[in-house]
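Anyone up for a design puzzle?
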């Protein structure tokens, strides 16, 4: 099993069906999954009294198993089940719980609430009486644990299907991560997340959580050009290009040039600033990748500079203003392009490429497929999508990244990785991880320049 794979609800059903086809019964799988969850609940509860809220489906069946395992371990346990079990496995689990259950919340109180009301299969809001029951019980328990997913959450989008859903101390995923575990707004409700393996194999085409990259020291005979020459195209607001260049210098490329026509631009001593017509400065065959967009501007001259970059057919990272100026006709089948839009820029790209999708993940996937670009839809829940359907998801980084210029730093890292030879999908994954690790090392109240300077330290832990 890949513990980094993220499955849709339909992929999860198919993965479980593969286990059933191999001879495992639903009840046996429930004992494995709920048994693993019960161990996590036992550790979190630490001897406290536990209330388990059970629904009518297999998620409720998990709850009966959890309650039985906790009782056997010595915890005081009560079950609230507003509906009778409806699936065969849930009915079996209920029979094995040879104690009465409460059918309403009433004045039920306790220390730990385990939410097994509804899980991955829910695609519509909770009924009002069930939502009220969940809220009331949550309010009377200081520790709240969701099994698989919090009730009232859409598994594939992370949408909250009801208002005023409770927050949780922990969420215990069964078998595999779901998109909601890593997508806002649901992610913010879930507290600490844990995964219980149940024997699911790697699923072809599954999304993956981004992992710490494996970087390598340069070869013994390396020089600045073999490590990659990156050209950063400056624009009307030179500060953004300088920030991106500072990050790129610390991300692996052996040589970073800032191409600008602004005479007053000055950077670090190690940064080469080359002035002149872009058609001439881009003509160097040793350039392995180009970054355009940070501080580019949106004037006619900025559009001309973007056209000059795209006409060179070099691997390119598009960020900032370049994403607003980009038109479908600027791309060709031979273009290797990584786009790094924030939500507003993603909106602009979707309009330009006639992409219609409501869910952010689906928009990124559709845009990648239609445009042929790798799309790194950056934000507090960054998603990376390829035209071939590959999807990578970023575990949450510090919210201190919400500072002006942090996106310029990200694009600089990604472009540097591409100049060093990484394919654009891998470069985006590496950049997002390094960006988050650099932010973690910066602590609180940092600037984008601080972030850029922390990238080399972040990279050092990947060697």
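Challenge accepted. My sequence:
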């Amino acid at each position: 099993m890949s513990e980094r794979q993220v499955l849709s609800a339909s992929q999860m059903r198919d993965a479980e069906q593969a286990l059933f086809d191999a001879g495992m019964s639903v009840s046996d799988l429930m004992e494995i999954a709920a048994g693993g969850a019960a161990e996590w609940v036992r550790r979190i509860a630490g001897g406290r009294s536990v209330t388990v809220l059970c629904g009518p489906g297999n998620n409720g069946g998990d709850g009966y198993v959890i309650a039985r395992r906790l009782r056997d371990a010595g915890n005081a346990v009560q079950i609230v089940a507003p509906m009778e079990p409806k699936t065969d496995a849930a009915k079996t689990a209920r029979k094995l719980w040879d104690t009465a259950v409460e059918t309403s919340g009433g004045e039920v109180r306790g220390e730990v609430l385990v939410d097994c009301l509804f899980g991955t299969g829910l695609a519509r809001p909770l009924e009002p009486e069930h939502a009220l029951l969940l809220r009331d019980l949550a309010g009377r328990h200081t520790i709240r644990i969701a099994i698989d997913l919090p009730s009232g959450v859409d598994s594939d989008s992370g949408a909250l299907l009801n208002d005023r859903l409770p927050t949780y101390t922990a969420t215990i995923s069964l078998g595999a991560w779901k998109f909601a575990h890593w997508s806002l707004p649901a992610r913010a409700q879930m507290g600490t997340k844990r995964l219980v393996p149940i024997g699911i194999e790697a699923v072809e085409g599954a999304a993956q959580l981004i992992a710490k990259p494996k970087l390598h020291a340069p070869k013994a005979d390396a020089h600045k050009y073999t490590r990659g020459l990156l050209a950063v195209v400056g624009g009307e607001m030179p500060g953004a290009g300088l920030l991106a260049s500072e990050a790129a210098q610390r991300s692996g490329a052996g040589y970073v040039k800032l191409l600008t026509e602004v005479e007053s631009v000055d950077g670090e001593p190690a940064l080469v600033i080359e002035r002149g017509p872009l058609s001439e400065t881009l003509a160097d065959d040793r350039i392995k990748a180009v970054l355009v967009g940070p501080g580019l501007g949106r004037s006619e001259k900025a559009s001309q500079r973007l056209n000059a970059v795209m006409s060179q057919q070099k691997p390119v990272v598009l960020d900032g203003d370049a994403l607003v100026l980009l038109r479908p006709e600027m791309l060709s089948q031979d273009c290797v392009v990584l786009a790094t839009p924030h939500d507003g820029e993603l909106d602009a790209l979707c309009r330009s490429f006639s992409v219609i999708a409501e869910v952010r993940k689906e928009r990124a996937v559709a845009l990648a497929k239609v445009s042929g670009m790798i799309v790194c839809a950056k934000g507090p829940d960054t998603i990376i999508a390829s035209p071939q359907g590959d999807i990578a998801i970023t575990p949450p980084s510090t919210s201190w990244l919400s500072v002006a210029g942090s996106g310029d730093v990200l694009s600089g890292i990604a472009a540097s990785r591409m100049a060093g030879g990484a394919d654009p999908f891998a470069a985006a994954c590496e950049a997002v991880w390094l960006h988050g690790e650099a932010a973690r090392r910066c602590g609180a109240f940092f600037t984008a320049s601080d972030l850029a300077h922390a990238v080399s330290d972040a990279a050092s832990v990947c060697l």
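A detail worth pointing out: The chain has two domains: 5-203, 229-460.
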